[in-house]
């Protein structure tokens, strides 16, 4: 079976699907996928800005397997051409081999080894934080009840993970000479720093929150900009931060609390620029009910159940739309986005044979 998977992985890695720059079209890697899936009904849709989806259906399945084909850009730390698959003693090395073209190769091999109902949804915008492909799929009458979303989970079924929210803040200030007595209060940068201190205290106070093995609130101030020079009071400042809530957190309530960390009148703009729901999606009670349904699905497919994870996946979008969603794929998340990323042969083999078994059932 591994000999069937590796040629597909070599071909998939050779297609440049780096995102950015979001230059993925309906040809290239999608032409390859179409040829490898004879007997499937194929529908390819261009959603713009490099977001292309391909739905391949055989028979009348109620379960869809989803895998994204885009990768992050390669860094200068790669030791060889990232678009040329290299085979070592126990691993396959290449851009996207772990995240997550290895799963796509496994699906192709499993499709050719079976003949029953199957549905694969390939997408190309997961790394863009702009999930047009999945949103468009879920907006239609798709007819699926269950979704198995491929991400690196060491071939364990992940039932829960954090949500994600990204925020842009803009602070007001009043320009002037830095020697003035009002510099402490007039500087927009000073207001931003005071906000940051209070926000960090808020996050530390959430350390006791927990859900399915996850605890606390993940938080990061990623970028601060503002000011002119050291002797000029900063008239404006901009902060970009993100947090990753538990499925049991009320995200809107957290936004209100983060906004309240700013001094009265200091905050000109508070804008959430991206939100991804937690897995399972829903309020605390609803999330637990959906987690139990996902556990039952994983057990019915004879998949080992892994711990909840901190990283976000598009499985949360399927869950939010009412599908029972599980994250399942080969590879280690520590290899995702890393230079010389790799996936182990035994992970590829385990994943592919499990998909063959599932499709056979």
Short structural description:
With 361 residues, the chain is of the alpha+beta class. The chain has helices spanning 2-14, 29-36, 97-113, 132-139, 183-186, 188-205, 251-259, 284-300, 315-320, 345-360, and strands spanning 41-46, 52-58, 63-68, 86-87, 91-93, 118-123, 146-149, 164-172, 210-211, 214-215, 218-226, 236-244, 267-276, 324-327, 342-344. It contains 10 helices and 15 strands.
What does this structure look like?
A hairpin with a 5-residue loop joins strand 1 (41-46) and strand 2 (52-58). The longest helix has 18 residues, at 188-205. The chain has a six-stranded mixed beta sheet. The protein has a four-stranded antiparallel beta sheet with strand order 11-12-8-13, with helices on one face. Strands 4-5-15 form a three-stranded antiparallel beta sheet. 32% of the residues lie in helices and 23% in strands. The protein contains ten helices and 15 strands. The chain starts with a helix and ends with a helix. It has helices spanning 2-14, 29-36, 97-113, 132-139, 183-186, 188-205, 251-259, 284-300, 315-320, 345-360; strands at 41-46, 52-58, 63-68, 86-87, 91-93, 118-123, 146-149, 164-172, 210-211, 214-215, 218-226, 236-244, 267-276, 324-327, 342-344. With 361 residues, the chain is α+β, with helices and mostly antiparallel strands. The mean pLDDT is 96.
